[in-house]
Amino acid sequence: MAAMSHSRGTELRAVEKEQFYCEDFGNLRLDRGSAHRMSAREKIRERLAAELGDAQLAQRLAEIIEVDALCWRPPAIAPNKIQTIIGFTFGNRMAPNGNREPGPVNQALAALAARLSQEADARLIAQWEVAEAAASLLPPEAVISIFPRRDERDEPVYLGTTAVLEDIARRWPPESLGCIGVIAFSDHAFRCVETARRLGFDAYVPAGYALPTEYDPQSGQAWCRNRLAYLLHDVMLRVSDRRAAILSG
Length: 249
What we know:
Blueprint: H1 40-52, H2 55-70, E1 76-77, E2 84-87, E3 93-94, E4 100-101, H3 103-120, E5 123-127, H4 128-134, E6 143-146, H5 161-171, E7 179-183, H6 186-198, E8 202-206, H7 227-247
Parallel strand pairs: 1-8, 2-5, 2-7, 5-6, 7-8
Antiparallel strand pairs: 3-4
Helix pairs in contact: 1-2, 3-4
């Protein structure tokens, strides 16, 4: 299993300097019947230039739209190259007494993470909903839970994707964890991998592993009940991160 050591936190790199890890949409052709076929990005850029009256800004905005709205499939790597697994929760279930439980989606994620842990001989670092569900499938030393902090009413404070990765980076330098295998809900996986890479993790999804795709209509998080709602939620968070990076200069 990958060796881990305590160390410094890692600063979020400016989104403006990010590398794009999605498929090359410059090769995706539109207007297939026309003599001059334009790429998806070119088509968006042309429309934005006409709308905004600023060709340079239209080009940059087209690049942002391409990554933040059109990219959903992260890069994959062979499981035998993975040294550490990071598991991300997706929703939860609310028990009748008000307690939060992992729910079926996180149980599916836990089973996938346990399978990868056994195949790659890699430790699992996961949000508590996934870690709790994986506890019965792996030895105790193979699972590390990430818990949210609690507010003044002792309620858990929502721990988003970036906050999870920042917490991990504060405990272990990203490079010390080696190659990272990301286990996440299918529609969430691209943002998990892209955010991890911005923070310095060498992150991928495991090749050959079918990530969960079925939404839970009873999820305790409303945006995790419906695919269209979640896709808009994910795009909103990508754009919010980018806006924050631009404003921070």
